[in-house]
Structures are given as C-alpha cells and as structure tokens.
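Listing S7. Sequence submitted for prediction.
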Amino acid sequence: MEDVARMAGVSRTSVSLVLNKKPGHGIPESTVRRIHDAARELGYRRNAMAAGLRSSTTDTIGLISDVVATTPFAGQMLHGAQEMAWKARKLISVINTEGDPEVERAAVTQVLERRMEGALWATMYHRVIPRPRGLDGIPVVLLDARTEDGSLPSVVPDDLGGGRAAVAHLVAAGHRRIAFVNAEDGVPAAILREQAYREVLAEAGIAFDPSLLLLGEGTPGGEQAGLRLLDRPDRPTAIFCFNDRMAMGVLRAARRLGLSVPHDLSVVGYDNHEVLAPWMDPPLTTVQLPHLEMGRWGTEHLLALIDGRIDPAAPPEQKRMPCPLVIRDSVGPPRR
C-alpha cells in the first residue's frame, strides 16, 4: 500500500480509503483513478484476511448440501446461488456432506470458525428437515427444504401448483381417463402432486378411479406401472408421472405394447431433467423444477438478512417457487 501511495503521489490513508471502498472519503475522482492505475501497475492485491479481521466480515457465505454439489440434476441451485453472491461481491464455500452427520457437524464448525457471514442449507429434493444445529449465531436460509415449524426462511418448489398445471394440461387436451404414477416414499412432493391430481380431476367433474393411481420408482418402476395401466381394455388415455425418469419408463411400456405417443397415449413428467426430457422420443412435456430460481432467491434473501435489510424479528419467509409447465410433443388429444 505504501508503494501504491508513493507511485500515485498520495498518502497511505488515501490509498486505504479508495482500495477498501470506504464511503464518503471525499477524494477527487482524478486521484481515485490515479490510485487504481498505480495499484494495477504494481500488481497490488488487497489482503482479504487482514481486512476481515478489521471489519469482522469475510465476504464469504457457506453452502452446506447433502449431495447437491455432486449431482448435475440439482446443480442449477449452486449456479443460481453463485450468480447472486458474485453480484454482491461475495464468495460461496461449498461443502457436500453426502448426508453424513459427522461431516455435517464438521461443515458447521468450518462455517463458524472461518467467520462466514451466513449459510445456505440445501437438500437434493423437497424435504421437511429438523432445524440445522449449531448455526444459531448467523443467518441461515434453507434451499429445497423447510422445517416443520417454519423457524427458518426457506424456498421450495410449488409442487401443488406444478402438479395442477400438468393435470390441467391433460384435461384441456380432452382427456378424461388420466392415470398418475406417483413415488413410493411419501415425500412432500409426492403428497402435493397427488393432491393436485385429485383436485384437478374433481374440478373437471372426473371421478377419481383408484385403479389409475399406481406407485413406482425410477425408470423401471415407471415401466412396470405403465405396463399395468396400459395392458388392459379400459386403459387410460393419458398418464401423469411423478418425475421424468418414471415417464421414460411409461414410454418404454407404451412401445412394448405397440402404442404410439401422443397418438394413442399422452404422457407428462415432472422435473424437466435436462439430460432426459428434451431427448426422449417424443420430447417430453413436463414441469420445470426451479432449481436456478431457488438458488437465486435463497442467496438474495440471505444477503438481505446479512445486510440488515430484513427485520430479524419478522416471521421467516416460506417461499414457494413456481414450477412452470414445459410443453413439448408428448401430449395430444385422446384417440376417438
């Protein structure tokens, strides 16, 4: 800093005020430019650790996830978080725990010992989780997860709204006999998407048929459910699937039975899995999981908490991010 001051012909204090971006320093713009030019020429780099000790801030956010960081499917959450953090000149330190409680505890310790300003706690899919332990001293926002009591701000997909959009699209295409292949484990997404399925059928005056609601898991489960639904005289004309992998299984079942999609059967998935949905035959109509938008919103909200722009006494916001319908070629009118 003394070298920069000497080259720019100013005091060391002026250099400190300019390079540390202190507001209201009153230094003329021509002098500011001269200081920056000298810093560039000399290759000056600010000592972030020393600055952090002086200011009690580190410009770093922790992101603790289960398997989000190592799974391309949900990686857009990291992309959205990084994008918003960088706009605020913050860095994100990502710790992937693989769901190991010991690693989670170590991650929390690292966030606190390294004096990170806040933490994002992300999960691979929409879950209700216990409040993360040990992070009570800093702002925390949950991504793709929420606590039962709503004691922390969170952002999750609007699975009810997305499911309604999917089934309503089939109803609008003229279908009356619509099946649903749901997940087996009863996660919030499965509960909400089934609720959406039942609601839209009732609103359309379509009686719920229990034989058209089956459980599956992944592509094999989708294929098995598809065979059970389609190899019968009163088969459905459309199938809504819990996710795109199950929809892929249903498409396989249809081909095995000599059925054409969407001529003989319409199919809608969920997730808009980028390596699956656009490349199926035909390309799959599906519902977008808003991973990118959740990452952006969660980070913006965390930064507002850190900066004091949100009243800490206000009830924590529970954000439901819209899940838009992505229309491709797997839905058509029912065959007469």
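Caption to Listing S7: primary sequence and predicted structure tokens for the chain studied. The longest strand covers residues 118-128. Residues 129 and 147 are 5 Å apart (CA to CA).
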